Amino acid sequence: MKENIKTLVDALVAERNLPDEGLRALIEAESEDAAYLRARGGEVCESVYGKAVYLRGLVEFTNYCKNDCFYCGLRRSNRECERYRLTEEEVLDCAIRGYELGFRTVVLQGGEDGGFSDESVVSVVRKIKESCPDTAVTLSIGERDADKYQAFFDAGADRYLLREETASPEHYSKLHPPELSLERRLDCLYELKRIGFQVGCGFMVGAPYQTTGDIIADLRFMQKFKPHMLGIGPFIPHKSTPFRDFPAGSVEMTLNLLAISRIMLPEVLLPATTALGTASDRGREDGLLAGANVIMPNLSPAPVRSKYLLYDGKLCTGDEAAESVRLMERRIESAGRYVDWGRGDFAGMGENK
Ligand code: 5AD
Q1: Burial profile 123-135: b = 16 or more Cβ within 10 angstroms, e = fewer
Q2: Which pLDDT score is estimated for 320?
Q3: Taking 70 as the threshold, does the pLDDT of residue 317 lie above it?
Q4: Does residue 225 carry a pLDDT above 90?
Q5: What pTM, to 2 d.p., does this model score?
Q6: Which atom of ligand 1 is nearest to the CA of 236?
Q7: Is residue 236 lining ligand 1, measured as CB closer than 6 Å?
Q8: How would you write the chain as a 3-class SS string?
Q9: Are 45 and 293 in contact (CB under 8 A)?
Q10: Which residues share a beta bridge with 204?
Q11: Closest residue (by CA) to atom 18 of ligand 1?
């Protein structure tokens, strides 16, 4: 191992911070250097959360989207995407099925779909909280006006996921059409936090045109914003998007970033993402070993699974929910961890709001 990598990782653990050059070396670390970084990421995770892994039941309730992000298979220009939208009852049924399987967090994720109204979101959140009172409800439905976020919160939603995608404005404009801006994205994130949600941000690793400097910008944003949750996964091309011919992001770099983020934000809730599991068979187990502590199995009804294709080859488009939970428990145990069936709230609540 390069002596300076050990020094850098140890300094990151002690200070929760490093100058840009140090971060660059860790982001790009390889072989035994990377192994040391990830092992320390795993240790920091264990010191806060023990060996627990939290499960979140993911309900992908609509794949309609008014946005046209260049990387995403659900973009409105993708005519090959077969669109669907669950009814409120179907969403509630998925949540209840998840509850019966033991889940205490349900994540409602969807495209920015004007056809599933904000009132319907409010109503379905209320119903889930009535039927499953000790369940946390997480929303992941994109950019909305502040009054809508407030209405979701008042209905009982606890958490909100909204990746910034990239914290560099120049890079943002290479991934999105001109009507979308980083400024608006960040305004939404700060608004969500102000309202009182536990908030998740995040980015893709190896997105087209991304430089290591852009990734450092994401880490700096993360330090400043102090999210409660953080979604980091490799970019994976989708065949019906303008980015179809770009290579997938590096699994190795993604694992380094999970470890770095864990060390910088020890209490953050950090999933080993489905994209990581799609890019590598061992991806999610390796993610847990590097410091991740959340897995998000799919609870969407089987017939719509194969239609929520953010990228090619997405995992779990076939399995039944119950089946995938059993498989997931086995995978988690094979990484020396266990499933904690609690809500899995942010460990630093109170100090980091
Ligand atoms: N590869 C990897 N992740 C993607 N996402 C969207 N498209 C892709 C892709 N092609 C991620 C985005 C979004 C999340 C729901 O999925 O970061 O925020």
Answers
A1: ebbebbbeebeeb
A2: 65
A3: no
A4: yes
A5: 0.97
A6: 1
A7: yes
A8: CCHHHHHHHHHHHHHCCCCHHHHHHHHCCCHHHHHHHHHHHHHHHHHHHCCEEEECEEEEEECCCCCCCCCCCCCCCCCCCCCCECCHHHHHHHHHHHHHHCCCEEEEEECCCCCCCHHHHHHHHHHHHHHCCCCEEEEECCCCCHHHHHHHHHHCCCEEECCCECCCHHHHHHHCCCCCCHHHHHHHHHHHHHHCCEEEEEEEECCCCCCHHHHHHHHHHHHHHCCCEEEEEECCCCCCCCCCCCCCCCHHHHHHHHHHHHHHCCCCECECCHHHHHHCCCHHHHHHHHCCCEECCECCCHHHHCCCCCCCCCCCCCCCHHHHHHHHHHHHHHCCCEEECCCCCCCCCCCCC
A9: yes
A10: 233
A11: 163
Tokens found for residue 19: 């100058």
What is the band of 353 on the pLDDT scale with cuts at 50, 70, 90?
very low
Q: Give the Cα separation of 25 and 199 in Å (integer).
A: 29
- 135-167, pLDDT tens digit by residue? 999 999 999 999 999 999 999 999 999 999 999
Distance CA 171, CA 120 (A): 34
245's tokens: 């011919």
**CA–CA separation, 3 vs 21, rounded Å?**
15
- The answer, yes or no, to whether residue 319 has pLDDT greater than 90, is no
277 CA → ligand 1 middle, Å: 13
Residue 186 Cβ < 6 Å to ligand 1: no
- Kindly state if the Cβ of 277 falls inside 6 Å of ligand 1: no
Tokens representing residue 235 in the block = 């970019």
- Locus of tokens 């976020």: 149
Query: Which of 58, 67, 70, 71 gets mutated to test ligand 1 (max ligand atoms within 8 A of its CB)?
Result: 71
Q: Which domains does the chain have, with CATH numbers?
A: 3-340 (3.20.20.70)
What number does the ligand 1 atom closest to the CA of 241 have? Answer: 10
